């Protein structure tokens, strides 16, 4: 979404307390706003969630969904909220407001405290602002820090004059089949 509440808030000098309270994870470095990507993956049980040899995208997604549903069905109450916050931190911190390298930024974590309001934020606008900000002013900068395919999908829907391709592979992600 590009409409909704602004993705904004207070910047803290340390995110140790919100990370420990909301995610149940330890933060290394007292003044850090970063959590290691691999720590989040391990905490969600998806560290070995790669596509298996000979497995198509549809089968991979089905296996991942079934595994996640089974794990979530065993949890209750606050534990489910903690897992959901960890998942959202992984998605938002790596894909929407991504950083280069392994660490995942947690500056948005206070916005995940009330899970019922997460869908009211304009995450699409935050992504576009983050991608624009990460372009930098240096002539040596050749990449962006965010999840660039999201911008490509947005352009696909909102800039039809760019043209659309033809799907070449069966079993590709359904959105890609449109291309």
TrEMBL record:
This is Aminotransferase-like plant mobile domain-containing protein. GO terms for biological process: meristem maintenance. InterPro entries: AminoTfrase-like_pln_mobile, MAIN-like. Residues 2-162 form the Aminotransferase-like plant mobile domain. It comes from the Eukaryota.
């Amino acid at each position: 979404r590009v409409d909704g509440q602004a993705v904004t808030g207070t910047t803290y000098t340390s995110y140790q307390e919100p990370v420990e309270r909301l995610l149940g994870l330890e933060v290394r470095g007292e003044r850090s706003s970063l959590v290691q990507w691999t720590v989040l993956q391990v905490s969600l049980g998806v560290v070995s969630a790669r596509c298996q040899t000979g497995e198509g995208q549809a089968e991979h997604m089905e296996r991942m969904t079934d595994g996640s549903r089974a794990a979530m069905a065993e949890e209750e109450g606050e534990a489910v909220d903690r897992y959901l916050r960890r998942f959202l931190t992984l998605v938002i911190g790596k894909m929407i407001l991504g950083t280069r390298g392994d660490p995942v930024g947690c500056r948005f974590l206070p916005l995940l405290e009330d899970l019922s309001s997460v869908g009211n934020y304009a995450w699409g606008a935050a992504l576009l602002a983050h991608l624009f900000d990460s372009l930098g002013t240096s002539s040596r900068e050749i990449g962006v820090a965010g999840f660039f395919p999201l911008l490509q999908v947005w352009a696909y829907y909102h800039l039809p004059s760019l043209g659309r391709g033809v799907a070449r592979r069966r079993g590709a992600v359904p959105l890609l089949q449109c291309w």
